[in-house]
Amino acid sequence: MLRNMYPPGCRVELEDMEADPYVKLSPGDLGTVQFVDDAGQIHVSWDCGHSLAMVFGVDHCKCVMREERLQEILQRIQAMPFESLEKMERYVMEKLSGVFPKISFQKKEGQEVFVDMGVAAFMKKGLGVAIQYETDSQQHIFIKKMEMQGQDIKGKFVFQMQQKQR
């Protein structure tokens, strides 16, 4: 049951955790589920740079986004016209920054933008979305294609974390 509630790669938000003297996490911190072990511990790579297992029934987190939900959001975005590239980026930021606070946009050659989610999620390292678009005579943006990209992660992979800056 826990493995269905917290599939590998889903994004979680910490609600409550028993105090740990070595790891300073606060309610609202975000992370990515690595796996659920046979003892029912939910192993999470937290965006702040720590990897820590949560004990079910003692610690509490909620799944804030599964891959299917991201796909639904991307499909809705793809169907929408935008007045400008900036408005499209603002809309994407509004929809996703709560779950991916390190999200950023990189303009590519031609009519393409890469949305870097800033973390590993959904069993992909370097998760991002490539957006190809076209414009009309008034420079309105129409999305032609959106594709989730990233390096696939196989099995129980411990996400590499960035060193905490001092």
UniProtKB/TrEMBL annotation:
This is Uncharacterized protein DUF4314. The lineage of its organism: Bacteria, Bacillati, Bacillota, Clostridia, Lachnospirales. Pfam families: DUF4314. Residues 2-63 form the DUF4314 domain.
